[in-house]
């Protein structure tokens, strides 16, 4: 029986900035309820930000462990870096050349969830 990934659920103590971040980064549409934000971006499963008042942000690569992380393939890494940081992402590794169009970079969302951007 084949499986299809329908959604990815991300916990956040405060869903407003986390939902806004993923919506700004990925585009598409967002539906908000008091406890969940549903982001539907083209070509991706639904990203669901759910309220988790006791969520503790991962501290990658040490400290509180990450539960999972997302990797995104992008055409232009420098452009994707600008988009991610403008949306509120924080670089978790120093980047020697932010103009490089290829490679990979590690970031954290406003709730502290690590994710990677990798050149396609």
Automatic annotation (TrEMBL):
Pfam families xref list: Glyoxalase_6
UniProt xrefs under InterPro entries: Glyas_Bleomycin-R_OHBP_Dase, Glyoxalase_6
Domain Glyoxalase-like, first and last residues per copy: 8-117
SUPFAM superfamilies the record matches: Glyoxalase/Bleomycin resistance protein/Dihydroxybiphenyl dioxygenase
Name under which the protein is recorded: Glyoxalase-like domain-containing protein
Organism field: Actinacidiphila yanglinensis
Lineage: Bacteria, Bacillati, Actinomycetota, Actinomycetes, Kitasatosporales
